[in-house]
Amino acid sequence: MINILIADDHAIVRKGLKQILSETPDMSVAAEASSGEEALEKIAHNNFDMILLDISLPGKNGLDVLRQIKREKPKLPVVILSVYTEEQYAMSAFKAGASGYLTKESAPEELISALRKISRGGKYVTSSLAEKMALRISAIKERLPHDRLSEREYEVMCMIASGKTINQIAKKLSLSASAVSTYRSRILEKMEMSGTSDIIRYVVKHGLLLD
Predict the structure, then answer these.
(1) 2-139: what fold?
(2) What is the pTM of this model?
């Protein structure tokens, strides 16, 4: 039996969820909470198998409640059920430690399926969110190393590659030599390079030399 705490400030929502879960033989609503503080108090004094948590709660919001739960009971699965679309809060919820994110428009069958999967140690991500996450990861991977640099770091990198010395760059950009050296160190760190020769090879290879 999966013992669940429902935390939602709307009594009608809690009643609806309780009705859905009561018709599921392997799930039970062990307790209810109408605020984040009440949820945290009940979690502290009871053992639940899962928390069904709304984001919009009076007082402490759902994401703050989620973060506190994960600090105090890191292994306790928390499922976010919200009126907000995935685009608005799902990524933040997963980063904070959520095991699943569903909107309140989800079908009861999807909710039950998600809770069962999570109870077995998995995470629940809708197909649409999974696709968005895959596209985001792909976009990050496709970024070139120099995209991590600030405009000034990029400028210094290209000037180093063109053969200018630290002092020449400093004079050209009206900076101190120590400031230029700091930029050089940041460039090497961000681009995971070991020295000037690596910078030159990279800039030439990608055709980044400034006129």
Answers:
(1) Rossmann fold (3.40.50)
(2) 0.63
Residue 7: phi and psi, rounded to 5, are: -115, 105
Token code pair at residue 41: 């108090």
Backbone angles phi, psi at 124, to 5 degrees: -115, 120
pLDDT tens for each residue of 178-211:
999 999 999 999 998 999 999 999 998 888 875 4
What span, in angstroms and rounded, lies between the C-alpha atoms of 13 and 24? 17
Give domain limits for the chain.
Answer: 2-139, 145-205
Judge contact between 102 and 114, C-beta under 8 A: yes
For the record, the structure tokens of 127 come out as 């197909």
| Cα distances (angstroms) measured from residue 28 to each of 39, 73, 115 | 17, 20, 12
The pLDDT tens digits of the residues spanning 73-131 come to 999 999 999 887 766 788 888 888 999 999 888 899 999 999 999 999 999 988 777 77
CATH architecture of 145-205: Orthogonal Bundle (1.10)
Q: Identify which of 199, 176, 177 has the alpha carbon closest to the alpha carbon of residue 188.
A: 199
CA 93 from centroid of its chain's CA atoms: 7
